[in-house]
């Protein structure tokens, strides 16, 4: 039996793809009889009823609504509280291995520093590298040092490895790839809907236009050439921007061409009704929605950010938007529309690509890797 400590390093409770792998792996390891503890943000828990067998420790919440003059003191106190909580859970757990999950790439550097100081092996699980988020040089070096003393750095793509080297100005040796779990059947594709009436294009993911580019899609629909086309954009996902995006669709005069479905748990039902996935994202890691669409034999029209270009061969199994600008989104969508008769073929090719790049059971694969790593430390 091994002792594993999972740390969800962000300070706020979030939901999304970055939380799926670590939480499911934690449960899988607990089911195998290992001792598993999870340190989560204040008010956090494991997604759904996934906490079976996992001891969940929510970190303390600092008080809010205080006078401005106390903010700097509270900021320091918040950091002290955060580190004290990590020290306490490490002291109690005595882990063989710490897994630090980061939605980005800097949220857990302080946890890594502490683990290094205590000589406890740790893994950095990194979901997104923001190439445009350059760090102050002294901070970049501190983060790089935390990465350098990790036992393993887990990334989603080759592009992510290059991006990490660029933003930290350092290369790393112990780097591996991981895959996130997904919500479709690995063994089964989805029948392609008939293209004899409306064309249905899905946008799947959190309603966050800053990242996902919903605004670019809505402005595209407002163009005169798209107003007359028999196309519907089905938007799946929830978030604070729902009302904002609904208002935007009305303001642009495209409310009749956009349907907001909210969050849908039944992912196969999405692909039973849609012909393609559109992701005009400004930044990504390796979007789970893309993997699900490709496994379902649907072409993906997505921006060349993160690891997307390692999956999409432009014009062969999908379409790559060179950059997240209105002009390039329009150009790529126009090219895709002109070839909509080929979408079924491109989707079949996309499925072949996805089968070669992902695992049938990413959770079991990652859990086995952690056990092997923990065993090597004894």
Please provide a brief summary of the model.
This protein is an alpha/beta fold and 378 residues long.
Would you give an account of this structure?
- The protein has 378 residues and is α/β, with parallel strands linked by helices.
- The protein folds into 2 domains: 3-182 and 360-377, Glycogen Phosphorylase B (Rossmann fold, 3-Layer(aba) Sandwich), CATH 3.40.50; 199-357, Rossmann fold (3-Layer(aba) Sandwich), CATH 3.40.50.
- It contains 14 helices and 13 strands.
- The strands form 2 sheets. A 7-stranded parallel sheet has the order 3-2-1-4-5-6-7, sandwiched between helices.
- Helix 1 (20-31) packs across helix 14, helix 3 packs across helix 4 (137-148) and helix 11 packs across helix 13 (343-357).
- It is elongated.
- It starts with a strand and ends with a helix.
- The relative contact order is 0.12.
Question: How would you state the average pLDDT, rounded?
Answer: 92
Examine the coordinates and then state which fold CATH places here, giving the name of the CATH topology of the largest domain: Rossmann fold
Which band does the percent of strand residues land in?
Answer: 15-25%
Counting structural domains, the number is 2
- The value of Rg in angstroms is 22 Å
How would a crystallographer describe the biggest sheet?
A: 7 strands, parallel
SSE topology string:
EHEEHEHEHEHEEHHHEHEHEHEEHHH
Number of strands: 13
Gross morphology is elongated
Taking the alpha carbons of the first and last residues, their distance comes to 12 Å
Strand order of the largest sheet: 3-2-1-4-5-6-7
User: How many helix segments?
Assistant: 14
Low-confidence stretches: 63-77
Portion of residues within helices: 25-40%
Q: So, CATH architecture of the largest domain?
A: 3-Layer(aba) Sandwich
SSE class: alpha/beta
The CATH homologous superfamily of the largest domain is called Glycogen Phosphorylase B
**Overall CATH class of the largest domain:** Alpha Beta
């Amino acid at each position: 039996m091994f002792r594993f400590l999972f740390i969800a390093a962000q300070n706020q409770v979030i939901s999304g793809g970055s939380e799926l792998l670590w939480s499911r792996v934690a449960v899988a390891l607990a089911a195998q009889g290992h001792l598993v503890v999870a340190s989560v943000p204040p008010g956090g828990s494991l997604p759904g009823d996934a906490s079976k067998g996992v001891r969940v420790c929510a970190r303390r919440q600092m008080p809010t609504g205080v006078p401005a003059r106390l903010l700097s003191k509270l900021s320091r106190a918040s950091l002290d509280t955060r580190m004290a909580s990590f020290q306490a859970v490490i002291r109690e757990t005595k882990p063989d291995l710490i897994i630090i999950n980061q939605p980005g790439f800097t949220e857990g550097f302080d946890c890594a520093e502490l683990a290094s100081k205590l000589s406890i092996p740790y893994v950095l699980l990194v979901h997104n590298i923001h190439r445009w988020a350059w760090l102050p040089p002294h901070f970049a070096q501190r983060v790089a040092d935390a990465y350098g003393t990790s036992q393993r750095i887990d990334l989603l793509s080759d592009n992510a490895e290059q991006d990490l080297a660029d933003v930290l100005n350092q290369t790393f040796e112990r780097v591996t790839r991981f895959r996130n779990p997904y919500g479709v059947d690995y063994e089964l594709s989805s029948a392609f809907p008939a293209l004899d009436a409306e064309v249905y294009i899905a946008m799947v993911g959190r309603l966050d236009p800053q990242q996902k580019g919903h605004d670019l899609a809505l402005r595209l629909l407002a163009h005169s050439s798209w107003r007359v086309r028999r196309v519907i954009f089905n938007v799946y996902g929830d978030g604070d921007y729902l009302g904002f995006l609904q208002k935007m669709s009305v303001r642009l005069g495209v409310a009749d061409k956009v349907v907001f479905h909210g969050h849908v748990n039944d992912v196969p039902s999405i692909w039973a009704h849609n012909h393609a996935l559109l992701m005009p994202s400004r930044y990504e890691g390796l979007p789970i929605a893309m993997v699900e669409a490709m496994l379902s034999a649907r072409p993906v029209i997505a921006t060349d950010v993160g690891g997307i270009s390692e999956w999409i061969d432009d014009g062969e199994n999908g379409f790559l938007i060179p950059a997240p600008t209105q002009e390039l989104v329009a150009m790529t969508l126009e090219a895709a529309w002109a070839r909509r008769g080929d979408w079924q073929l491109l989707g079949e090719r996309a499925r072949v690509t996805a089968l070669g790049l992902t695992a049938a059971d990413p959770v079991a694969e990652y859990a086995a890797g952690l056990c092997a790593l923990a065993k090597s430390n004894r």
